[in-house]
Amino acid sequence: MSAKYTRARSQSPVSDDSLDTVYRVAAKSRRRAYINAAISLTFLSFIALVSFSFWTSSPTASRAAEPSHDDSTNLRTGNSDVLDPSNYVLGAPTEHFRDNLRPDVQYITSWISAGWTNDVMTYVNLIYLGIITDRVPVIPMFTPSHIGGSVPPIAFGDVFDVPRLRNAINKPIIEWRDVKDPASNQLDNLGCWNVWESSQYQEAHPRGSPVLYHLGLDISYTKMPAWIKLYQDFEHDYSTTFWTLARFAYPETRNANLVTPLPSPATNVSLPPDEQMLCYDYLYYVCAQQPNEFEADFSPAWRFVAQYMHWVPSLERLANVYTNRAIGLGDDEPTPPYIGVHVRHYDFDRYCGDMPLTDCFAPIPVIARRVREVKDELLATKGLDVKYVVMTSDERNASWWQEVAEQGWFAPDHSRTKELLGDWYPVLIDAAIQSGGVGFVGTEMSTMSLLARRRVETWQNGVTRTVKWGHPGADDH
Ligand SMILES: Nc1nc2c(ncn2[C@@H]2O[C@H](COP(=O)(O)OP(=O)(O)OP(=O)(O)O)[C@@H](O)[C@H]2O)c(=O)[nH]1
Ligand SMILES: *[C@@H]1O[C@H](CO)[C@@H](O)[C@H](O)[C@H]1NC(C)=O
Ligand SMILES: *[C@@H]1O[C@H](CO)[C@@H](O)[C@H](O)[C@H]1NC(C)=O
Protein backbone atom coordinates (compact mmCIF):
# COMPACT_ATOMS: atom_id res chain seq x y z
CA MET A 1 0.00 0.00 0.00
CA SER A 2 1.48 3.35 -0.90
CA ALA A 3 0.44 6.91 -1.44
CA LYS A 4 2.15 9.97 -2.86
CA TYR A 5 2.78 12.83 -0.57
CA THR A 6 5.31 15.59 -0.09
CA ARG A 7 7.50 16.55 2.79
CA ALA A 8 10.32 18.90 3.66
CA ARG A 9 13.92 18.03 2.92
CA SER A 10 16.29 17.60 5.82
CA GLN A 11 18.65 20.39 6.71
CA SER A 12 21.96 19.46 5.18
CA PRO A 13 25.05 19.05 7.33
CA VAL A 14 27.11 22.15 7.94
CA SER A 15 28.42 22.96 4.52
CA ASP A 16 31.94 23.86 3.65
CA ASP A 17 30.78 27.38 2.82
CA SER A 18 28.84 28.12 5.97
CA LEU A 19 31.63 26.86 8.22
CA ASP A 20 34.10 28.90 6.26
CA THR A 21 31.95 32.01 6.72
CA VAL A 22 31.94 31.58 10.47
CA TYR A 23 35.63 30.95 10.66
CA ARG A 24 36.47 33.84 8.37
CA VAL A 25 35.07 36.58 10.60
CA ALA A 26 38.22 36.92 12.67
CA ALA A 27 40.65 34.68 10.87
CA LYS A 28 44.01 35.52 9.38
CA SER A 29 44.80 33.95 6.03
CA ARG A 30 47.38 31.49 7.39
CA ARG A 31 44.77 30.24 9.82
CA ARG A 32 42.18 30.06 7.09
CA ALA A 33 44.31 27.87 4.89
CA TYR A 34 44.72 25.44 7.76
CA ILE A 35 41.02 25.39 8.57
CA ASN A 36 39.95 25.04 4.97
CA ALA A 37 42.24 22.07 4.63
CA ALA A 38 40.90 20.53 7.84
CA ILE A 39 37.27 21.07 6.89
CA SER A 40 37.78 19.82 3.36
CA LEU A 41 39.43 16.72 4.72
CA THR A 42 36.55 16.09 7.12
CA PHE A 43 34.06 16.68 4.36
CA LEU A 44 35.92 14.50 1.87
CA SER A 45 36.26 11.66 4.34
CA PHE A 46 32.53 11.94 5.02
CA ILE A 47 31.79 11.67 1.30
CA ALA A 48 34.29 8.83 0.98
CA LEU A 49 32.66 6.96 3.84
CA VAL A 50 29.21 7.36 2.35
CA SER A 51 30.35 6.26 -1.11
CA PHE A 52 32.24 3.36 0.34
CA SER A 53 29.22 2.32 2.37
CA PHE A 54 27.18 1.81 -0.76
CA TRP A 55 29.95 0.57 -3.01
CA THR A 56 28.63 -2.90 -3.21
CA SER A 57 25.06 -4.04 -3.50
CA SER A 58 25.83 -7.65 -2.66
CA PRO A 59 27.49 -7.57 0.75
CA THR A 60 28.98 -10.76 2.02
CA ALA A 61 28.84 -10.47 5.78
CA SER A 62 25.55 -11.64 7.11
CA ARG A 63 23.85 -11.18 10.39
CA ALA A 64 21.45 -14.00 11.07
CA ALA A 65 18.07 -13.36 12.60
CA GLU A 66 19.11 -15.62 15.45
CA PRO A 67 22.79 -14.76 15.96
CA SER A 68 24.98 -17.70 16.80
CA HIS A 69 27.63 -17.69 19.46
CA ASP A 70 30.20 -17.09 16.73
CA ASP A 71 28.47 -13.89 15.68
CA SER A 72 28.86 -12.34 19.09
CA THR A 73 32.50 -13.36 19.21
CA ASN A 74 33.01 -11.53 15.93
CA LEU A 75 31.26 -8.48 17.32
CA ARG A 76 33.58 -8.39 20.30
CA THR A 77 36.70 -8.51 18.15
CA GLY A 78 35.55 -5.40 16.29
CA ASN A 79 35.50 -6.93 12.83
CA SER A 80 35.02 -3.90 10.57
CA ASP A 81 32.81 -5.91 8.16
CA VAL A 82 30.44 -6.51 11.01
CA LEU A 83 30.19 -2.76 11.67
CA ASP A 84 30.08 -1.59 8.06
CA PRO A 85 26.58 -0.09 7.61
CA SER A 86 26.42 -1.30 4.01
CA ASN A 87 26.14 -4.83 5.36
CA TYR A 88 22.76 -4.03 6.86
CA VAL A 89 20.97 -2.65 3.80
CA LEU A 90 20.79 -3.96 0.24
CA GLY A 91 22.21 -0.81 -1.34
CA ALA A 92 21.59 2.90 -1.77
CA PRO A 93 18.50 4.29 0.00
CA THR A 94 15.23 3.37 -1.74
CA GLU A 95 11.85 5.00 -2.28
CA HIS A 96 10.15 2.44 -0.02
CA PHE A 97 12.11 1.39 3.05
CA ARG A 98 11.27 -2.30 2.72
CA ASP A 99 13.00 -2.53 -0.65
CA ASN A 100 16.30 -1.91 1.13
CA LEU A 101 15.98 -4.29 4.09
CA ARG A 102 18.09 -7.44 4.11
CA PRO A 103 15.95 -10.51 4.71
CA ASP A 104 18.53 -11.94 7.10
CA VAL A 105 18.73 -8.83 9.28
CA GLN A 106 16.39 -7.82 12.09
CA TYR A 107 15.96 -4.11 12.83
CA ILE A 108 14.53 -1.94 15.58
CA THR A 109 13.32 1.67 15.41
CA SER A 110 11.34 4.29 17.32
CA TRP A 111 10.29 7.97 17.21
CA ILE A 112 10.81 11.19 19.19
CA SER A 113 8.56 14.03 20.37
CA ALA A 114 10.09 16.35 22.98
CA GLY A 115 12.95 18.81 23.54
CA TRP A 116 16.20 18.01 21.76
CA THR A 117 18.03 16.49 24.76
CA ASN A 118 15.00 14.38 25.63
CA ASP A 119 15.09 13.22 22.02
CA VAL A 120 18.79 12.38 22.29
CA MET A 121 18.00 10.26 25.36
CA THR A 122 15.13 8.58 23.50
CA TYR A 123 17.47 7.53 20.68
CA VAL A 124 19.99 6.33 23.27
CA ASN A 125 17.25 4.13 24.74
CA LEU A 126 16.45 2.84 21.25
CA ILE A 127 20.10 1.88 20.67
CA TYR A 128 20.32 0.18 24.05
CA LEU A 129 17.12 -1.77 23.36
CA GLY A 130 18.71 -2.74 20.03
CA ILE A 131 21.76 -4.08 21.87
CA ILE A 132 19.77 -6.27 24.27
CA THR A 133 17.46 -7.59 21.53
CA ASP A 134 20.30 -8.22 19.06
CA ARG A 135 18.71 -5.99 16.46
CA VAL A 136 20.19 -3.26 14.28
CA PRO A 137 18.94 0.18 15.46
CA VAL A 138 17.66 2.38 12.64
CA ILE A 139 17.87 5.96 13.90
CA PRO A 140 15.61 8.70 12.49
CA MET A 141 16.46 12.40 12.37
CA PHE A 142 16.12 15.08 15.05
CA THR A 143 13.08 17.30 14.61
CA PRO A 144 12.86 20.78 16.14
CA SER A 145 10.75 21.68 19.17
CA HIS A 146 12.06 24.56 21.31
CA ILE A 147 13.91 26.02 18.34
CA GLY A 148 10.92 26.65 16.10
CA GLY A 149 8.48 24.30 14.38
CA SER A 150 9.33 25.36 10.85
CA VAL A 151 13.03 24.52 11.16
CA PRO A 152 14.01 21.54 8.98
CA PRO A 153 15.17 18.36 10.73
CA ILE A 154 18.82 17.44 11.11
CA ALA A 155 20.18 13.90 10.76
CA PHE A 156 21.37 12.07 13.89
CA GLY A 157 24.69 11.45 12.13
CA ASP A 158 25.20 15.16 11.44
CA VAL A 159 25.26 15.74 15.20
CA PHE A 160 26.77 12.57 16.64
CA ASP A 161 29.79 10.72 15.28
CA VAL A 162 28.08 7.46 14.27
CA PRO A 163 31.19 5.64 12.95
CA ARG A 164 32.95 6.38 16.25
CA LEU A 165 29.90 5.18 18.21
CA ARG A 166 29.70 1.96 16.18
CA ASN A 167 33.37 1.24 16.80
CA ALA A 168 33.19 2.08 20.49
CA ILE A 169 30.24 -0.20 21.23
CA ASN A 170 31.09 -2.73 18.54
CA LYS A 171 27.58 -2.86 17.15
CA PRO A 172 26.09 -1.94 13.80
CA ILE A 173 23.94 1.20 13.90
CA ILE A 174 22.29 2.65 10.83
CA GLU A 175 20.19 5.73 10.12
CA TRP A 176 16.88 5.98 8.33
CA ARG A 177 18.64 8.01 5.63
CA ASP A 178 20.73 4.87 4.89
CA VAL A 179 17.54 2.89 4.33
CA LYS A 180 14.87 5.13 2.80
CA ASP A 181 15.72 7.95 0.42
CA PRO A 182 15.21 11.24 2.31
CA ALA A 183 13.83 12.68 -0.96
CA SER A 184 11.23 9.92 -1.37
CA ASN A 185 7.60 11.00 -1.47
CA GLN A 186 6.34 7.47 -0.90
CA LEU A 187 4.26 6.62 2.13
CA ASP A 188 4.99 3.25 3.77
CA ASN A 189 2.77 1.27 6.10
CA LEU A 190 4.25 -0.29 9.23
CA GLY A 191 2.87 -2.12 12.27
CA CYS A 192 4.30 -0.93 15.61
CA TRP A 193 3.80 -1.32 19.36
CA ASN A 194 1.95 1.41 21.23
CA VAL A 195 3.85 1.89 24.51
CA TRP A 196 2.50 5.33 25.36
CA GLU A 197 -1.18 4.51 25.76
CA SER A 198 -0.38 1.74 28.24
CA SER A 199 2.23 3.63 30.25
CA GLN A 200 0.21 6.75 31.12
CA TYR A 201 -3.47 7.49 31.60
CA GLN A 202 -3.89 11.05 30.27
CA GLU A 203 -3.86 10.33 26.52
CA ALA A 204 -5.82 7.45 25.04
CA HIS A 205 -3.71 7.13 21.90
CA PRO A 206 -0.17 6.31 20.78
CA ARG A 207 2.44 9.07 21.11
CA GLY A 208 2.54 11.23 17.96
CA SER A 209 5.83 12.21 16.33
CA PRO A 210 6.85 14.64 13.59
CA VAL A 211 9.37 11.99 12.50
CA LEU A 212 6.60 9.93 10.89
CA TYR A 213 5.85 12.75 8.49
CA HIS A 214 9.50 13.18 7.55
CA LEU A 215 10.02 9.43 7.07
CA GLY A 216 6.76 8.97 5.17
CA LEU A 217 5.36 6.33 7.54
CA ASP A 218 1.72 5.50 8.15
CA ILE A 219 1.64 3.40 11.33
CA SER A 220 -0.88 0.87 12.55
CA TYR A 221 -0.40 0.53 16.31
CA THR A 222 -0.99 -2.43 18.60
CA LYS A 223 -1.57 -1.39 22.20
CA MET A 224 0.79 -3.08 24.65
CA PRO A 225 -0.61 -4.80 27.74
CA ALA A 226 -1.05 -2.80 30.96
CA TRP A 227 1.64 -4.84 32.74
CA ILE A 228 4.49 -3.15 30.83
CA LYS A 229 4.49 -0.40 33.50
CA LEU A 230 7.29 -0.41 36.08
CA TYR A 231 4.78 0.64 38.73
CA GLN A 232 1.55 -1.23 37.95
CA ASP A 233 -1.52 1.01 37.68
CA PHE A 234 0.39 4.02 39.05
CA GLU A 235 -0.71 7.15 37.20
CA HIS A 236 2.13 9.45 38.32
CA ASP A 237 4.98 7.57 36.65
CA TYR A 238 5.24 6.56 33.00
CA SER A 239 8.23 4.21 33.21
CA THR A 240 8.48 0.89 31.45
CA THR A 241 11.63 -1.22 31.47
CA PHE A 242 14.05 -2.24 28.75
CA TRP A 243 13.62 -5.94 29.39
CA THR A 244 9.84 -5.76 29.54
CA LEU A 245 9.82 -4.14 26.10
CA ALA A 246 12.54 -6.53 24.86
CA ARG A 247 10.21 -9.49 25.47
CA PHE A 248 8.04 -8.22 22.60
CA ALA A 249 10.97 -8.63 20.20
CA TYR A 250 10.50 -12.39 20.49
CA PRO A 251 7.60 -14.58 19.34
CA GLU A 252 6.35 -15.96 22.66
CA THR A 253 5.42 -12.63 24.23
CA ARG A 254 4.63 -10.98 20.90
CA ASN A 255 2.17 -13.61 19.75
CA ALA A 256 0.44 -13.81 23.12
CA ASN A 257 -0.33 -10.06 22.99
CA LEU A 258 -1.66 -9.47 19.48
CA VAL A 259 -4.79 -7.48 20.23
CA THR A 260 -6.67 -5.79 17.37
CA PRO A 261 -4.43 -3.09 15.85
CA LEU A 262 -5.52 0.52 15.44
CA PRO A 263 -5.96 1.27 11.71
CA SER A 264 -3.26 3.58 10.32
CA PRO A 265 -4.39 7.24 10.16
CA ALA A 266 -3.64 7.98 6.48
CA THR A 267 -4.52 4.77 4.66
CA ASN A 268 -6.71 2.91 7.20
CA VAL A 269 -4.56 -0.22 7.13
CA SER A 270 -4.45 -2.58 10.13
CA LEU A 271 -1.16 -4.40 10.72
CA PRO A 272 0.28 -6.46 13.57
CA PRO A 273 3.65 -5.32 14.99
CA ASP A 274 6.31 -5.83 12.32
CA GLU A 275 8.73 -8.66 13.08
CA GLN A 276 11.58 -7.45 10.92
CA MET A 277 11.38 -3.67 11.56
CA LEU A 278 10.41 -3.91 15.23
CA CYS A 279 9.09 -0.53 16.35
CA TYR A 280 7.73 1.24 19.42
CA ASP A 281 6.05 4.64 19.43
CA TYR A 282 8.03 6.25 22.26
CA LEU A 283 10.98 5.12 24.38
CA TYR A 284 11.78 8.21 26.44
CA TYR A 285 10.29 6.78 29.65
CA VAL A 286 12.21 3.51 29.57
CA CYS A 287 14.62 2.47 32.31
CA ALA A 288 16.30 -0.64 33.64
CA GLN A 289 15.29 -0.31 37.24
CA GLN A 290 14.15 3.18 38.31
CA PRO A 291 12.61 6.36 36.88
CA ASN A 292 14.96 9.21 35.84
CA GLU A 293 17.66 6.63 35.59
CA PHE A 294 19.98 8.75 33.42
CA GLU A 295 20.78 10.60 36.66
CA ALA A 296 22.07 7.41 38.28
CA ASP A 297 25.68 6.21 38.13
CA PHE A 298 24.59 2.72 37.02
CA SER A 299 22.37 3.93 34.15
CA PRO A 300 22.92 1.30 31.45
CA ALA A 301 21.71 3.70 28.75
CA TRP A 302 24.51 6.07 29.73
CA ARG A 303 27.12 3.39 30.36
CA PHE A 304 26.55 1.23 27.29
CA VAL A 305 25.51 3.87 24.74
CA ALA A 306 25.36 7.60 25.55
CA GLN A 307 28.90 7.94 26.88
CA TYR A 308 30.17 6.85 23.46
CA MET A 309 28.10 9.40 21.54
CA HIS A 310 30.68 12.07 20.76
CA TRP A 311 29.97 15.13 18.64
CA VAL A 312 30.90 15.04 14.98
CA PRO A 313 34.37 16.62 14.59
CA SER A 314 32.99 19.72 12.81
CA LEU A 315 30.76 20.46 15.84
CA GLU A 316 33.62 19.97 18.31
CA ARG A 317 35.64 22.36 16.23
CA LEU A 318 32.80 24.92 16.23
CA ALA A 319 32.49 24.69 20.03
CA ASN A 320 36.20 25.46 20.38
CA VAL A 321 36.02 28.37 17.93
CA TYR A 322 32.99 29.88 19.72
CA THR A 323 34.65 29.43 23.12
CA ASN A 324 37.92 30.93 21.93
CA ARG A 325 36.14 33.94 20.47
CA ALA A 326 34.13 34.46 23.67
CA ILE A 327 37.35 34.47 25.66
CA GLY A 328 39.18 36.64 23.14
CA LEU A 329 41.52 34.06 21.64
CA GLY A 330 42.25 33.30 18.01
CA ASP A 331 40.24 30.54 16.36
CA ASP A 332 43.06 28.04 16.11
CA GLU A 333 44.70 28.65 19.48
CA PRO A 334 44.27 25.79 21.93
CA THR A 335 41.09 26.23 23.97
CA PRO A 336 42.15 26.70 27.62
CA PRO A 337 40.49 24.75 30.46
CA TYR A 338 37.18 26.36 31.42
CA ILE A 339 34.14 25.81 33.60
CA GLY A 340 30.96 25.54 31.55
CA VAL A 341 27.67 26.72 33.03
CA HIS A 342 24.18 25.87 31.79
CA VAL A 343 21.33 27.95 33.18
CA ARG A 344 17.99 26.61 31.98
CA HIS A 345 15.29 29.32 32.13
CA TYR A 346 12.68 30.41 29.60
CA ASP A 347 9.78 27.89 29.55
CA PHE A 348 10.94 26.39 32.88
CA ASP A 349 8.77 29.20 34.30
CA ARG A 350 6.07 26.53 34.00
CA TYR A 351 7.40 25.07 37.27
CA CYS A 352 7.14 28.41 39.08
CA GLY A 353 3.38 28.91 39.30
CA ASP A 354 2.64 32.41 40.60
CA MET A 355 6.08 32.90 42.14
CA PRO A 356 8.08 35.80 40.66
CA LEU A 357 10.84 34.37 38.46
CA THR A 358 13.50 36.28 40.42
CA ASP A 359 12.47 34.16 43.45
CA CYS A 360 11.95 30.92 41.52
CA PHE A 361 15.11 30.76 39.36
CA ALA A 362 18.45 30.66 41.16
CA PRO A 363 19.99 34.17 41.20
CA ILE A 364 23.47 34.78 39.79
CA PRO A 365 25.23 34.86 43.21
CA VAL A 366 23.86 31.37 43.93
CA ILE A 367 25.25 30.11 40.62
CA ALA A 368 28.53 31.90 41.35
CA ARG A 369 28.78 29.99 44.65
CA ARG A 370 28.60 26.68 42.74
CA VAL A 371 31.14 27.92 40.20
CA ARG A 372 33.49 28.78 43.08
CA GLU A 373 33.08 25.26 44.52
CA VAL A 374 34.02 23.71 41.19
CA LYS A 375 36.98 26.07 40.89
CA ASP A 376 38.18 25.23 44.41
CA GLU A 377 37.83 21.48 43.88
CA LEU A 378 39.72 21.63 40.56
CA LEU A 379 42.54 23.47 42.32
CA ALA A 380 42.55 21.15 45.32
CA THR A 381 42.28 17.85 43.45
CA LYS A 382 44.06 18.55 40.16
CA GLY A 383 46.12 21.63 40.91
CA LEU A 384 44.24 23.34 38.08
CA ASP A 385 43.70 27.09 38.43
CA VAL A 386 40.85 27.57 35.97
CA LYS A 387 40.52 31.17 34.78
CA TYR A 388 37.55 31.00 32.43
CA VAL A 389 33.84 30.51 33.01
CA VAL A 390 31.62 30.12 29.95
CA MET A 391 27.87 30.64 30.34
CA THR A 392 25.25 29.04 28.08
CA SER A 393 21.56 29.68 28.61
CA ASP A 394 18.18 30.02 26.94
CA GLU A 395 17.57 33.24 28.95
CA ARG A 396 16.57 36.19 26.77
CA ASN A 397 16.65 38.95 29.38
CA ALA A 398 19.49 41.33 28.41
CA SER A 399 20.00 42.65 31.95
CA TRP A 400 20.46 39.07 33.19
CA TRP A 401 23.22 38.58 30.57
CA GLN A 402 24.70 41.89 31.74
CA GLU A 403 24.86 40.47 35.26
CA VAL A 404 26.63 37.40 33.84
CA ALA A 405 29.21 39.63 32.16
CA GLU A 406 29.75 41.53 35.41
CA GLN A 407 30.93 38.28 37.02
CA GLY A 408 33.76 38.22 34.52
CA TRP A 409 32.13 35.23 32.80
CA PHE A 410 32.11 34.75 29.05
CA ALA A 411 29.37 33.64 26.65
CA PRO A 412 29.33 32.41 23.05
CA ASP A 413 28.10 35.06 20.63
CA HIS A 414 25.18 33.50 18.78
CA SER A 415 24.01 36.74 17.17
CA ARG A 416 24.82 35.37 13.70
CA THR A 417 24.85 31.60 14.31
CA LYS A 418 21.41 30.86 12.85
CA GLU A 419 22.05 33.02 9.82
CA LEU A 420 25.45 31.41 9.14
CA LEU A 421 24.92 27.78 10.18
CA GLY A 422 21.18 27.22 10.58
CA ASP A 423 18.71 27.23 13.47
CA TRP A 424 20.00 24.04 15.08
CA TYR A 425 23.46 25.38 15.76
CA PRO A 426 22.98 27.62 18.82
CA VAL A 427 21.79 24.63 20.87
CA LEU A 428 24.25 22.16 19.30
CA ILE A 429 27.23 24.47 19.86
CA ASP A 430 26.09 25.27 23.41
CA ALA A 431 25.76 21.56 24.23
CA ALA A 432 29.23 20.90 22.84
CA ILE A 433 30.66 23.84 24.83
CA GLN A 434 29.00 22.53 28.02
CA SER A 435 30.59 19.12 27.49
CA GLY A 436 34.07 20.47 26.80
CA GLY A 437 35.03 22.09 30.10
CA VAL A 438 37.01 20.62 32.98
CA GLY A 439 34.16 21.78 35.22
CA PHE A 440 30.43 22.16 34.80
CA VAL A 441 27.59 23.81 36.71
CA GLY A 442 24.08 22.86 35.58
CA THR A 443 20.43 23.44 36.39
CA GLU A 444 18.43 20.84 38.29
CA MET A 445 15.53 19.30 36.30
CA SER A 446 17.14 20.05 32.93
CA THR A 447 18.11 17.02 30.86
CA MET A 448 20.41 19.27 28.82
CA SER A 449 22.30 19.99 32.07
CA LEU A 450 22.15 16.33 33.06
CA LEU A 451 23.81 15.06 29.88
CA ALA A 452 26.39 17.87 30.02
CA ARG A 453 27.23 16.87 33.61
CA ARG A 454 27.73 13.23 32.66
CA ARG A 455 29.83 14.12 29.61
CA VAL A 456 32.11 16.39 31.64
CA GLU A 457 32.48 13.71 34.33
CA THR A 458 33.19 10.93 31.83
CA TRP A 459 34.95 12.66 28.96
CA GLN A 460 36.96 15.27 30.89
CA ASN A 461 37.16 13.55 34.28
CA GLY A 462 35.76 16.91 35.38
CA VAL A 463 34.20 18.40 38.49
CA THR A 464 30.48 19.20 38.44
CA ARG A 465 27.69 20.75 40.49
CA THR A 466 23.94 21.12 39.95
CA VAL A 467 22.04 24.23 41.10
CA LYS A 468 18.70 23.66 42.81
CA TRP A 469 15.93 26.20 42.29
CA GLY A 470 12.17 26.69 42.67
CA HIS A 471 12.02 29.02 45.69
CA PRO A 472 14.35 31.47 47.46
CA GLY A 473 17.11 29.55 49.22
CA ALA A 474 16.45 26.34 47.23
CA ASP A 475 20.19 25.82 46.66
CA ASP A 476 21.26 26.57 50.25
CA HIS A 477 23.64 23.91 51.44
N1 LIG B 1 20.96 27.59 22.47
C1 LIG B 1 20.55 27.13 23.65
N2 LIG B 1 19.32 26.56 23.73
C2 LIG B 1 18.92 26.09 24.93
C3 LIG B 1 19.75 26.20 26.09
N3 LIG B 1 19.07 25.65 27.12
C4 LIG B 1 17.89 25.21 26.62
N4 LIG B 1 17.78 25.48 25.30
C5 LIG B 1 16.68 25.12 24.40
O1 LIG B 1 15.65 24.49 25.15
C6 LIG B 1 15.61 23.09 24.86
C7 LIG B 1 15.37 22.34 26.16
O2 LIG B 1 14.86 21.02 25.94
P1 LIG B 1 15.75 19.75 26.24
O3 LIG B 1 16.98 19.87 25.42
O4 LIG B 1 14.95 18.51 26.07
O5 LIG B 1 16.21 19.92 27.75
P2 LIG B 1 15.45 20.23 29.12
O6 LIG B 1 16.26 21.31 29.73
O7 LIG B 1 15.27 18.96 29.87
O8 LIG B 1 14.05 20.86 28.80
P3 LIG B 1 12.59 20.20 28.64
O9 LIG B 1 12.74 19.11 27.62
O10 LIG B 1 11.75 21.35 28.18
O11 LIG B 1 12.21 19.68 30.00
C8 LIG B 1 16.93 22.77 24.22
O12 LIG B 1 16.92 21.61 23.42
C9 LIG B 1 17.18 24.05 23.42
O13 LIG B 1 16.40 24.03 22.27
C10 LIG B 1 21.04 26.79 25.95
O14 LIG B 1 21.83 26.91 26.88
N5 LIG B 1 21.39 27.24 24.72
C1 LIG C 1 -11.34 1.46 7.30
O1 LIG C 1 -11.34 0.08 6.95
C2 LIG C 1 -12.36 -0.66 7.59
C3 LIG C 1 -12.12 -2.15 7.31
O2 LIG C 1 -11.76 -2.35 5.99
C4 LIG C 1 -13.73 -0.18 7.09
O3 LIG C 1 -14.76 -0.93 7.71
C5 LIG C 1 -13.83 1.30 7.47
O4 LIG C 1 -15.03 1.82 6.97
C6 LIG C 1 -12.65 2.10 6.93
N1 LIG C 1 -12.70 3.44 7.48
C7 LIG C 1 -12.45 4.51 6.76
C8 LIG C 1 -12.51 5.83 7.49
O5 LIG C 1 -12.17 4.46 5.57
C1 LIG D 1 15.72 40.62 33.88
O1 LIG D 1 16.86 40.27 34.65
C2 LIG D 1 17.10 41.16 35.71
C3 LIG D 1 18.44 40.78 36.32
O2 LIG D 1 18.49 39.41 36.63
C4 LIG D 1 15.93 41.14 36.69
O3 LIG D 1 16.17 42.02 37.79
C5 LIG D 1 14.66 41.51 35.97
O4 LIG D 1 13.55 41.37 36.82
C6 LIG D 1 14.47 40.65 34.74
N1 LIG D 1 13.35 41.14 33.94
C7 LIG D 1 12.37 40.34 33.53
C8 LIG D 1 11.31 41.00 32.69
O5 LIG D 1 12.30 39.15 33.81
TrEMBL record:
Keywords: Carbohydrate metabolism, Fucose metabolism, Membrane, Transferase, Transmembrane, Transmembrane helix
Chain ranges passing through the membrane: 33-55
Keyword Transferase listed: yes
Recorded coiled-coil stretches: none
InterPro entries with a match to the protein in the record: OFUT2-like
A GO molecular function held by the record: peptide-O-fucosyltransferase activity
Gene Ontology biological process terms from the UniProt entry: fucose metabolic process
Protein name as annotated: Uncharacterized protein
Organism: Guyanagaster necrorhizus
